[in-house]
Write a structure and sequence with these properties.
The protein is of the alpha/beta class. It has helices spanning about 1-5, 30-45, 60-65, 70-75, 85-95, 105-120, 130-145, 160-170, 185-195, 210, 220-225, 230-235, 240-245, 245-255, and strands at about 15-20, 20-25, 50-55, 80-85, 120-125, 150-155, 175-180, 200-205. Helix 9 (about 185-195) links the parallel strand 7 and strand 8 (about 200-205). Helix 2 crosses helix 6 (about 105-120) and helix 3 (about 60-65) crosses helix 14.
Length: about 260
């Protein structure tokens, strides 16, 4: 699937491997068009195909992938890897392989829900703390009138729960699955179960349910436009400072090693 998305005949840009981690350089609109095409093909097919995975990558993902081979493989083998994080956008610009825009995970999850509402595709919300997905579902249906959310469940990414979770999703007859277990757990969970997930598309959405449910606040739009969402989150959650160290470490690695990686 990845090869067809980046076929030179398609007119879409080739992916760039940033410190060995693939990044697809698409606009959000292109991402949504690709996804809707996949959903349409799945709907028209007589047989269930293999689920397709979307990863929303940021500098923290890239740094974790440097020493987590299964995570790196999950990212690089995903159907789409979108640049969620201003650090990714700036690094690609520095390396002269720019991406047209940041494709934020929260915004993409909402935009995809709106497209699903228009085309009657069904959505399942998996993950976050107990009760959060239910609140997020209500908010998502306010933002995407007519959206069919056919199931919500917290569960956990533990392998021992996989059979139960997959059965819940199968019974719900969902088309799209949002998984909110945080990285790398959510992305590894999806990758492990691609062959048996009974949906056309699965996307790791991190803290999206918390934002939708009002448990976390996003940065003001002005700060988002300036690429300072990370600073606002650090202000709101100072305990995250250790995790935020990934950003300067990432930029140092980009400067030192970035030019050694090239287009696939």
């Amino acid at each position: 699937m990845v090869q067809t998305l980046t076929d030179p005949q398609s007119g879409l840009p080739q992916p760039f491997y940033l410190l060995g981690v693939r990044v697809d350089r698409f606009t959000q609109s292109q991402v949504l068009d690709i996804v809707m095409n996949i959903l349409e093909r799945a709907r028209s097919s007589d047989q269930q195909g293999i689920c397709q995975q979307i990863v929303t990558v940021n500098p923290e993902f890239v740094m974790q992938a440097q020493h987590n081979a299964p995570f790196l493989q999950a990212i690089n083998h995903a159907m789409l890897v979108v640049p969620d994080g201003i650090g990714i956008v700036l690094a690609l610009r520095y390396l002269r392989h720019p991406t047209p825009e940041r494709v934020a995970g929260v915004d993409t999850a909402v935009a995809l829900a709106r497209r699903c509402a228009l085309q009657n595709y069904r959505l399942y919300l998996l993950g976050a703390a107990p009760g959060v997905a239910e609140i997020a579902a209500t908010r998502l249906q306010e933002l995407a009138p007519g959206l069919q959310i056919v199931g919500t469940y917290a569960g956990s990414p533990a392998p021992s729960e996989e059979d139960e979770l997959i059965e819940r999703i199968r019974v719900a007859q969902a088309d799209v699955l949002y998984v909110a277990y945080g990285a790398p757990a959510q992305d590894l969970w999806i990758a492990r179960n691609l062959a048996r997930l009974p949906v056309a598309l699965a996307m790791g959405v991190g803290g999206t349910f918390d934002f939708l449910a009002g448990r976390q606040r996003r940065a003001p739009e002005a700060m988002q436009r300036m690429g300072l969402e990370w600073l606002y989150r650090l202000y709101r959650e100072p305990w995250r400072w250790r995790r935020m160290l990934a950003l300067p470490q990432f930029m140092i690695q980009v400067v030192l090693k970035g030019h050694n990686f090239h287009d696939a």
